[in-house]
Amino acid sequence: MNERISIEEIIRLYKIDYSFLDQLIDSELLHPETENSLRYIIYEELPHLERFANWHYDLEVNLPGIEIIHKLLNQMEELRNENRKLLQNVTRFETWEDADF
Hints:
The protein is mostly helical. 65% of the residues lie in helices and 11% in strands. The longest helix is centred in the last third of the chain and has 36 residues. The protein is elongated and about 65 Å long. It starts with a strand and ends with a helix.
């Protein structure tokens, strides 16, 4: 079972509005687990929650803005990973070309 924290505890610790957290869940930016009618967020999603809360409360970014920024950052990460793979393939090809047979 994943480590997790209840929604109520998140609201208390992070001092965020329940409605904001609910909007993040409705937008599928966070994916709660439910057990015994209590909702939990897994620890792995807490960095996302912190980032979203910072954007919202510190930078006054609204939910559609958060969704767009999150999507763009994910796309950038995917492109970085693809770039890394391509560079590895080029390096392997160059190494293979230089090999004496």
